[in-house]
Design brief:
Blueprint: H1 2-8, H2 10-16, E1 30-38, E2 48-51, E3 56-68, E4 78-85, E5 94-101, H3 102-105, H4 108-111, E6 116-118, E7 122-125, E8 130-133, E9 140-154, E10 160-169, E11 175-184, E12 189-195, E13 200-202, E14 204-214, E15 220-222, E16 228-245, E17 250-260, E18 267-284, E19 289-301, E20 304-312, E21 321-328, E22 333-335, E23 349-359, E24 365-368, E25 372-390, E26 394-403, E27 411-416, E28 420-427, E29 433-443, E30 450-452, E31 462-464, E32 475-481, H5 488-493, E33 498-507, E34 518-521, E35 526-535, E36 537-550, E37 562-573, E38 578-586, E39 592-596, E40 598-599, E41 602-603, E42 607-608, E43 614-616, E44 618-626, H6 628-636, E45 639-647, E46 652-654, E47 661-671
């Protein structure tokens, strides 16, 4: 009932005497509960303003009718998922050299080594295979793509007119490559490239010359049996389907891109993060070490761009290596103007760079197409401390009901002498706005009476400028209502507990007039209040006031031995009102446990002078007797519902800050003797 107390003075002190803090019981037979001394100086100065000249008070009361968070800007969750398999890994480009000597081609030349003779033409087939060690390439690999370059250099003293060369896997004799070379002059070479797609190549190979035809020498030539045909095998651009190999250092993922986000209407330039997180997850089955570098140049903390480096050790065979990380984004400033705002200044555009490298350990490891590296990251739950840009042209229509706390427990009849009212619009958005109040209606739930507000100033839109760029500050627009332009007096004297409303709020009714300089804070919005200002002087006919307070009676010691209990209210009252009281116990779910009667039934008024100034307080002791059969109900009580019946004398009364209501409350419990 405190808000009502702010208006009525007496009620504030009377009902505040039953403290909001639950009373706790101890084991004493006589238990002091609480005592208090309240004056109007303790009341919230937002509502009551002291008139120093005569110590009376003026009411200033703002009741929130509608709170429109029309621009709750949030950054949508931003995710990136990427992966690569073995197809994106490359094996090293390497070469090996193998020589097939003249002695290997024809053992007869071994006997002629060092002699100068004329060499006849040769025509040979299926020369003895020559072992070739390809372990420098890999242990084994089935290739998705790649090339084998075979280069034949002629060291023979004669011209090679035909050479058919075949490369085999030593393990099973399968042919890896085969090609023919024509007319290779002495001291020159020829080269052929062979596509290795779908080929399986082992480390142990055999080179076979299937056919060799040479011309006769043009005369006597020097025989060097160690010279012959030099074969250079070069593998390049190899991408395996599966392989056991030592993979070289290489970049496997390189992304530098901008992502355009859907902000749901607003066009954001900058976004200062109040809360949110960056979540990283990396999974790999690849048995080699890797490094992931994620950069978000658009996001910076104290001028330092966001960068995360994740080192991934090679996975064990048949297992998955995982790493996860969460980064608190609070305090980061995100620039949504794109990758290079100096070149292209845009909105809602997010720049990120992702780089993944394989860090070779030199070990030969097995990798198959089923192996992969998977990366996912997401920016989630980003809420702004502030955001700037163009917040869009939006219309928010809303109808509903708002509590009017000033009269939350009141019915009866009361007349106000002088007061003024206004509809107050508070704009905490950094953008222009307009408000159209289509309907306001006061509703008293006790009498069932409703009064619809008729006000000429509210027949058209109320325009309001943007808020200053300072957290918590607003631009206010006040529309005054009085007896000449509205029925506001009847509206208020209905003592409403609810204000039924139908309101339109529009942002940027004239479009992007700020040129992307709108802003919002995390608490930005538009609030509409009904403001009352009046002297705290009123006429009471008959008035019922209601309130509910919390207690904690469940800790009464040895409740099973309590024969009876009495709650005693010792009250000294300066106020010039007689107040009747009754109480109802409620359980934790606010279900009634029964009414508790007090005797006597009312608090006597204090003595005052001709102008209402206090002369002497009255003292009234109220007793609430709790018999044994009601002790259990008291034990279960979590709340007390109170009803105060204020009886006025029909004349205007002024409230002074020198009024006091002193309350002392205690509990007396009678226990059965225990021997």
């Amino acid at each position: 009932m405190r808000n009502l107390a702010y208006f009525f003075g007496l009620t504030a002190l009377l009902l505040s005497a039953c403290s909001r803090k639950a009373a706790r019981w101890d084991n004493n037979v006589a238990l002091p509960l609480f005592s208090t001394e309240m004056t109007l100086n303790d009341i919230d100065r937002r509502f009551l303003v002291n008139n120093a000249s005569d110590s009376s008070y003026t009411l200033v009361y703002d009741n929130l009718v509608y709170n429109a968070r029309t621009l709750r800007v949030t950054a949508p969750d931003t995710s990136l998922n990427t992966f690569f398999t073995l197809r994106r890994l490359k094996l090293s480009d390497r070469s090996i050299v193998q020589r097939i000597t003249l002695a290997q081609i024809n053992p007869t030349f071994r006997l002629l080594d060092g002699q100068t003779i004329a060499v006849p033409a040769q025509n040979q087939s299926d020369l003895s295979p020559v072992d070739i060690d390809a372990s420098a390439f890999f242990e084994t690999a089935t290739l998705d793509s790649g090339f084998l370059d075979i280069s034949i250099s002629n060291e023979l003293p004669v011209r090679v007119s035909l050479l058919v060369f075949e490369l085999q896997n030593a393990s099973d004799g399968s042919v890896v490559a085969k090609d023919s070379f024509l007319n290779i002059d002495q001291g020159s070479s020829a080269k052929k490239s062979i596509n290795l797609r779908n080929k399986t190549v082992g480390k142990n190979l055999k080179g076979v010359i299937r056919r060799l035809i040479t011309d006769a020498s043009s005369g006597a030539v020097l025989i060097n049996a160690s010279k012959g045909v030099e074969i250079t095998l070069t593998v390049r651009d190899l991408r395996p389907r599966n392989a056991i190999a030592a993979f070289p250092n290489q970049t496997v993922i390189e992304q530098d891109q901008s992502l355009v986000l859907d902000m749901g209407g607003p066009q954001i330039k900058f976004f200062k993060v109040k809360q949110g997180s960056l979540r990283l997850k990396v999974e790999t089955t690849i048995q080699e070490n890797m490094t992931m570098i994620l950069k978000i140049p658009s996001a910076s903390y104290n001028g330092v761009p966001l960068e995360r480096v994740v080192k991934m050790p090679g996975a064990k065979p048949g297992s998955v290596e995982r790493q996860e990380e969460t980064v608190d984004m609070s305090g980061y400033l995100i620039d949504y103007r794109g990758k290079d705002p100096a070149v292209k200044d845009t909105v809602n555009t997010f720049h990120q760079v992702l780089l993944v490298t394989l860090d070779s350990s030199g070990r030969k490891v097995q990798v198959t197409l089923s192996d992969s590296l998977r990366i996912s990251y997401s920016l989630t739950g980003l809420l702004p401390e502030y955001a700037t840009g163009y917040m869009g042209q939006t219309l928010n229509s809303s109808s509903g009901k708002a509590p009017f706390a000033l009269f939350k427990g009141a019915d009866g009849n009361i007349l106000f002498k002088d007061f003024k009212a206004s509809v107050l619009v508070k704009n905490t958005i950094g953008a222009e706005g307009s408000v159209r109040v289509k309907s306001l209606e006061s509703e008293n739930v006790f009498s069932g009476n409703k009064v619809k507000l008729s006000a000429t100033p509210l027949n058209s839109k109320v325009f309001i400028g943007p808020a200053p760029f300072v957290y918590g500050q607003s631009t206010d627009k006040q529309v005054l209502l009085d007896g000449g332009n509205s029925n506001i007096k009847a509206f208020v004297e209905n003592l409403p507990q609810w204000i039924n409303y139908d309101i339109d709020i529009e942002t940027n009714p004239n479009g992007n007039v700020s040129n992307w300089k709108d802003f919002v804070f995390d608490n930005s919005g538009a609030e509409i209040y009904l403001r009352l200002e009046a002297p705290a002087s009123f006429t009471i006919g008959g008035l019922n006031l209601r309130d509910t307070q919390g207690i904690e009676a469940a800790s009464i010691p040895q409740v099973q031995r309590v024969k009876s209990a009495t709650v005693i209210f010792d009250i000294e009252n300066d106020y010039p009102f007689e107040v009747g009281m009754n109480f109802t116990l409620l359980d934790e779910y606010f279900n009634p446990l029964g009414e508790v009667s007090v005797s006597p039934g009312s608090v006597l008024p204090g003595k005052t002078g001709p102008g209402g100034e206090p002369l002497a307080p009255s003292r009234t002791v109220l007793r609430a007797n709790i018999p044994k059969d009601r002790i259990e109900a008291l034990h279960k009580a979590h709340h007390v519902a109170m009803k105060a019946r204020v009886v006025g004398n029909g004349t205007q009364q002024k409230i002074y800050n020198t009024y006091k209501l002193k309350v002392k409350t205690s509990l007396q419990a009678e226990y059965e003797a225990q021997f």
